[in-house]
Amino acid sequence: MCAIEAGKxxxxxxxxxxxxxxxxxxxxxxxxxxxxxxxxxxxENFLSANPHFAKSALARYTPDDFISLVEKHHIPYxxxxxxxxxxxxxxxxxxxxxxxxxxxAGVQILVSSEPREISRxxxxxxxxxxxxxxxxxxxxxTGGLSIPKIGATAFxxxxxxxxxxxxxxxRPALVPLVLAPEDRARYCDLAGVSAxxxxxxxxxxxxxxxxxxxxxxxxxxxxxxxxxxxxGTPVRIDLAPGREITTNLRSGxxxxxxxxxxxxxxxxxxxxxxRWLELHTPPAWTNQALENFERRTHEWEIVPAGxxxxxxAEVTAGGVDTGELSAKTMxxxxxxxxxxxxxxxDVTGQLGGFNFQWAWASGVAAGQAV
Length: 370
Ligand SMILES: Cc1cc2nc3c(=O)[nH]c(=O)nc-3n(C[C@H](O)[C@H](O)[C@H](O)COP(=O)(O)OP(=O)(O)OC[C@H]3O[C@@H](n4cnc5c(N)ncnc54)[C@H](O)[C@@H]3O)c2cc1C
Description:
Elements lengths: L1 H7 L5 E3 L7 H5 L6 E4 L7 E2 L7 H6 L2 H10 L4 E3 L4 E4 L4 H13 L3 E3 L4 E6 L3 E5 L2 E5 L2 E3 L14 H8 L4 E7 L3 E2 L2 H7 L6 E7 L4 E8 L3 E3 L1 H7 L8 E4 L8 H5 L5 H9 L4 H10 L7 H12 L1 E3 L3 E2 L7 E6 L17 E3 L7 E2 L4 H14 L3
Parallel strand pairs: 1-6, 10-20
Antiparallel strand pairs: 2-5, 3-21, 4-5, 7-8, 8-9, 11-19, 12-15, 12-18, 13-14, 13-16, 14-15, 16-17
Helix pairs in contact: 1-5, 1-13, 10-11
The structure holds flavin-adenine dinucleotide.
Flavin-adenine dinucleotide (FAD) binds next to helix 2 and helix 13.
């Protein structure tokens, strides 16, 4: 997006891509259909040490702007849920769009071209194999550390460090959580069971699906909350959001395991309901014991052992400290001509098309300034 915008302004632009093709992450995104934006994109959908930083770029390049581009290329798309827009056909439509726009803006893309060394004299000098490229502006758009097997590198952070820019420590986000051994023994044989829950930490909550996996928990609610989770702290899960389980039992005569199981099964998937009851059988059938059971079911508190790491993370939180960059142009405050855009910057979107919207918007902001 940066190259396209700069190319349209008459700049001579070269994109250096280490892979044999551009946009590999786009191709695997959204289950192969690329959730390319979100209709309800707001600054609150992003995490950053400075929550205000993303506002300017996001306001100047909106989901509607990207939708116009998608429509210009006659790409069929649909809203899946919660404002999330996906391609009808395939994510390849989006990489084709970007390549076509690059072509018509006169942008040259060089694939299998990994910069080895960057230096600076009157401008930037980038060495790739036996060639040298000189430019007055250098834009780093190398993404985060997630999914190393499709080519993620720490290169962007290294360039930032080389030029003295601060980094917020990169960490896996939108990532499945791994349970501690004792919880794994209790729940993970239920792998594949999913339930609608509210997952929360002290400052955030998400009501979406949770999925039990062989090593822990995943699904949209867990991926979302993982971005806000810090190691050693608990995640709370409401297994029955907005539902009362024990009210009828407390007001009626049949206070026993069968009645409670049947009430729980109406709200929670059967296998999980049975396991939950097995592990949390009320010690008595008093109102107090039933209330405690009700509360526990709405406040399952777990301290995950960790996350599945960058191998499985959809995104990398942290990155180039936004205090180092202009919010308007993404240019370094101290090193004129050096820009950072997209995921390498300490701006991380929630699940649902926000990370691409940030990549497009920050790219356009830099493209208007280089
Ligand atoms: C499985 C998965 C699914 C996702 N689904 C969605 C989704 O549906 N919606 C959404 O909004 N977000 C999604 N994301 C997140 C989204 O893909 C990223 O946030 C987004 O691609 C970031 O864009 P970027 O241009 O900053 O970095 P990237 O897309 O990662 O692009 C960086 C590029 O730089 C290249 N590169 C890296 N190092 C070097 C180097 N040293 N030299 C030259 N080139 C280099 C890489 O090969 C890559 O092509 C998903 C992520 C994953 C992993």
